[in-house]
Amino acid sequence: MTTYTRTSAALALSAVTAATALTVAFAPSADAAAGGRADAVPASAAAGTAGAPALAWRPCERPGGPAGQECAELPVPLDYGDPAGRQLSLAVSRIRSDRPAARRGTLMVLPGGPGGSGVQRLAQKGEALGKAMAGSYDLVGFDPRGVGASTTANCGLAPEDRMLVTLRSWPDADGGVAVNEARSRRVAEACQTNGGAVLRSFTTANEVRDMDRLRQALGERKLSAWGTSYGTYVGAVYGQKYPQHTDRWVLDSSGDPDPSRVARGWLANMSQGADDRFPDFAAWAADPARAAEGLRLAERPDEVRPLFLALAATLDHAPKPSTTQGTPLTGNLLRQAMQNALYGDAAFPGLARLVRQAQDPAATPVLPPELAQPLRDEDAAIAVAVICNDVKWPADVNAYARGSAADRAAHPLTAGMPATVTPCAFWKDAPVEKPTRITGDGPSNVLMIQNLRDPATPYFGALKMREAFGDRARLVTVDHGGHGVYLGNGNACGDRAVTEFLTTGHRPSRDTFCAAGQ
Asked: What is the pLDDT of residue 49?
């Protein structure tokens, strides 16, 4: 792991090839210097605090999941302005420390999204995370309001409006936004008519309040957290609102926290994110090793991008029937499959196979499951509601058309999607509160970790989060592509930095760099 100063962070992209592995001096965080335990209460604490109810845990271990997983429900106010009023229910899950003497508190697992399930995230990562933490924490996750087994809402959307490729608002085949405008108006109207007060309560601010209510119910004075993707924003806002309740805070794959844009900025940044990441796929798809698998798309990496763009353009005007009746492979479906596949190297074979099937006149493309069927209405509702409820989006359709055309020309891989019109442009309810500005006010207890080539939360956006935190944070940059770093991409250097921080409190003294394969 190579150290570099904060002022040189922006140069990391050009410096990675010269980086070498060096030993890093770690500095203890405040709680480590004070003795290691962060105001933790005994693991056996049953009652909540500050009026939060106790949690009634029950076994919910599933085949293939982590051993000892437990589940409970937490009531939270629909409206925190009326805490005694209508209550919603949140699904909560935990894996208790198997070493009570080593336990120092609770580690909250914050999923991505909006719309990600903390309960599922814990089930997926619980075994690996528990091994890495070596009993230091009870591991806890929850489904935010609107997600999974928690209270949900729906917009009553037609199936065609719940396809991922339409929820992402890909422009028309000719680059126009007319179809998106009509769909966006339709979705916004349906959510206003059918969503009610529950849908209007789906905000980052309420998720943060719910998280603190869960802290109280757990009987903890402080929490540690591992947030990924959108979970980094939730974690950052919690750390801004409740700094006194934060212990060791890990933010994995962060976006730009600009409070004037929030999710609109995250979406816009995906254009450059795809451009940064696609060369990894191109190198993989041109590797001679792919030939034996029938997945080699070109002889040289620089031939893959034009091949992909030409194929998508052909499918724009001549969609190819797929094995999913009524859902042909279009140019936008291929682009969405590409965007999904860039999240992790393990998805590269599936994308290459889809490209091959699209090229072969005798083949019938098999669409990825997430693209072949519409989302559940509840899942579509939460995906739209949070980003529209959090901040006011511009409403000028002509401005979206101009922005989408410019983005399409500059970033053809994403074809203008990140800048086009969405239902948020026509959202009926104005935000009830302003987004939180992330600042350097608070304890210096944040460790950020970020891939250099992240298609969803690009590196330059993470640098904005790092800048906002100031001396509160340190950044570990990993020379890798994909979305999600810790316990996700196999970089031992990055994993080691996070594990050591969470288990010992020792954090890099400066922003640091992990080379590929380190």
From this structure: 53
Joined tokens for residue 72: 């409970």
Burial (CB count <10 Å: 0-12, 13-18, 19+), residue 158? middle
Write the pLDDT tens digit of every residue in 236-282: 999 999 999 999 999 999 999 999 999 999 999 999 999 999 999 99
Q: In terms of DSSP bridges, do strands 446-453 and 506-508 run parallel, antiparallel, or are they unpaired?
A: unpaired
Rounded Cα distance between 433 and 6, Å, is: 33
Q: Say how far apart CA 145 and CA 201 lie, in whole Å.
A: 8
Determine the residue type at 72: A
User: 163 in the Ramachandran plot: left (φ > 0), alpha (ψ -120 to 50) or beta?
Assistant: beta
Residue 18, number of CB atoms within 10 A of its CB: 8
As given in the structure block, the two tokens for residue 8 are: 């040189």
Angle between helices 348-359 and 263-286 (to 10 degrees): 70
> Worst-scoring range by mean pLDDT, 52-66, 102-116, 322-336, 380-394?
52-66
Measured between alpha carbons, how far is 61 from 224 in angstroms, rounded to an integer? 23
Of these ranges, 10-14, 21-25, 277-281, the one predicted with the greatest mean pLDDT is: 277-281
The whole-model pTM stands at: 0.91
- Cβ distance 432 to 391 under 8 Å? no
Report the amino acid identity of residue 140.
V
Q: Provide the pLDDT for residue 51.
A: 67
**Sequence-separated (6 or more) residues with CB below 8 Å from residue 275:** 411, 413
pLDDT digits (tens, 9 = 90+) for 442-478: 999 999 999 999 999 999 999 999 999 999 999 999 9
Whether residue 117 contacts residue 237, with contact meaning beta carbons closer than 8 Å, is answered with no
Name the phi and psi angles at 3, rounded to 5: -90, 145
Structure tokens at 418: 């990140």
**Torsion (CA) 333, 337, 342, 344 in degrees, nearest 10:** 160
* pLDDT of 500 strictly over 60: yes
The pairing of beta strand 473-481 with beta strand 506-508: unpaired
Degrees (nearest 5) of the Cα angle 137, 143, 146?
Answer: 160
Q: How far apart are CA 12 and CA 162, in angstroms?
A: 39
Nearest Cα to 390, choosing from 140, 208, 150, 224?
A: 208
